[in-house]
Amino acid sequence: MENILIDKQENIAIVTINRPTKLNALNKATIEELHNAFNDLNNDSAVKAIVLIGSGEKAFVAGADISEFANFSVEEGELLAAKGQELLFDFVQNLSTPVIAAVNGFALGGGLELAMSCHFRVASTNAKMGLPEVTLGVIPGYGGTQRLAQLVGKGRAMEMIMTANMIDAETAKNYGLVNHVVSQEELLDFAKSIAIKITNNSSVAIAKAIASINANFEDGVNGFQTEIKNFGWCFGTEDFKEGTTAFLEKRKAVFTGK
């Protein structure tokens, strides 16, 4: 892979977008590589959590590679958004392996959309986030209008998208866009520390929790019914038997992810 790096550390995988000279901008090749990497890691039973970060100190992902689509037609533009959402943004959101975005530096346009596709976000103190697409005469096309409103509320999403203003890390935390803010030096280790806590728990239960939470945001889907079904499904797993037995025996559970 030319544009990303993968580092597996026990049950955690660190995925680094590695285009520092382009501020890690998302081009077609990078989107395809990320899709393949996330797909492979999701199918690797040894990987229980994924941390996504950008290389260097300036940017998580500074946006999409505008030169690739500046001359697109209406049909090509629509296909670009549809394909991108299918290959990467919706794909990451619905991944059964938890993905934590470690937002270091700029997360703009497609970069913020990618961070929002992850299951949650932590940021460095120097992070800047925004959706500046209207300055190019276009709107966010990789789910930004939907996910930003879900995370920060309709009014704030409207203002951020209409003004194209960037917000800093503390503002993002206050808005609920990121969960934690730490120094850039601490960011990766901090994200990994959360990932380690996740890996101590049942991966099959976590996968069902992700699906149940996501169901709340799907049109025509009753999230409560999804939760009931997934709750019941957990009773048939080895992890449920181990977790309940360990609790009753007052010992630490050892989950197999089955």
From TrEMBL:
Lineage, top-rank taxon, reads Bacteria
Q: Which residues cross the membrane?
A: none
Keyword set for this entry?
Lyase
Gene3D superfamilies (alphabetical): 2-enoyl-CoA Hydratase, Chain A, domain 1, Lyase 2-enoyl-coa Hydratase, Chain A, domain 2
Known SUPFAM superfamilies for this protein?
ClpP/crotonase (SSF52096)
Give the GO biological process terms.
fatty acid beta-oxidation
Q: Which InterPro entries match?
A: ClpP/crotonase-like_dom_sf (IPR029045), Enoyl-CoA_hyd/isom_CS (IPR018376), Enoyl-CoA_hydra/iso (IPR001753), Enoyl-CoA_hydra_C (IPR014748)
Q: Which GO terms describe its molecular function?
A: lyase activity
Q: Which Pfam families match?
A: ECH_1
Family statement = Belongs to the enoyl-CoA hydratase/isomerase family.
Designated name of the protein: Enoyl-CoA hydratase
Name the species this protein comes from.
Answer: Flavobacterium urocaniciphilum
Task: Give the lineage.
Answer: Bacteria, Pseudomonadati, Bacteroidota, Flavobacteriia, Flavobacteriales
